[in-house]
Amino acid sequence: MTIEQHASRRRGPRGPYAKSRATQGSILDAALEVFGQAGFRSGSLRAVAERVGISEAGLLHHFKNKATLLRSVLEHRDAESLRMFDFGRPGGDVLRAMLELADYNETNPGIVELFGVVSAEATDPEHPAHEFFRDRYINTRQTIAESFAQLRSEGRLRPEVDPEDAARDLIAMWDGLQIQWLYHRGSFRIADELRRFIDAQLVAPLDSDGAQSSEPR
Fold this sequence. Notes:
Blueprint: H1 3-11, H2 15-42, H3 45-52, H4 56-62, H5 66-84, H6 92-105, H7 109-121, H8 130-153, H9 163-183, H10 190-201
Helix pairs in contact: 2-3, 2-5, 2-7, 6-8, 6-10, 7-9, 8-9, 9-10
């Protein structure tokens, strides 16, 4: 590879391809807002296209249908979360990363709205996001349970706490807190409430081993 080719690759795509990627990014951002506010069923492709400033046909050039767009939005959001926060290996690091993510989500209400509305809709097996959320809950529960189990192996989990139960309860608390937060934004920090629950499962607070706690964002 020449120096010029290497520099071009570092700069990223150029020309029509770069423009297409930029348009796709704008569509994903607009769809997150529309689906978050109106839900998947009520949120229209036309509303998404209007926010981007393109036609509905132009939107369908990038995403072949509404279901594909929704899946892309959800996957894009999760990929961004994994990129931004280092979840590391199961254990305390995963739980700390979750707290950082909860703080970050409060700066993006559209994300909280999207997952609150669409995850409820997607309990219907016919919903296009049903499998996404089903698998997401399974994987998230497993990751958290493994983290609590790791803390148990380190002698940090209270003996009466079952990792699987604690994982399920933590997810339920996070979902419920996000709904309450949407009604009373700024009245409390979700991460603080989650940390209180996590610490109650442990022999000593999560950050008592010297790790730095997450700061408000």
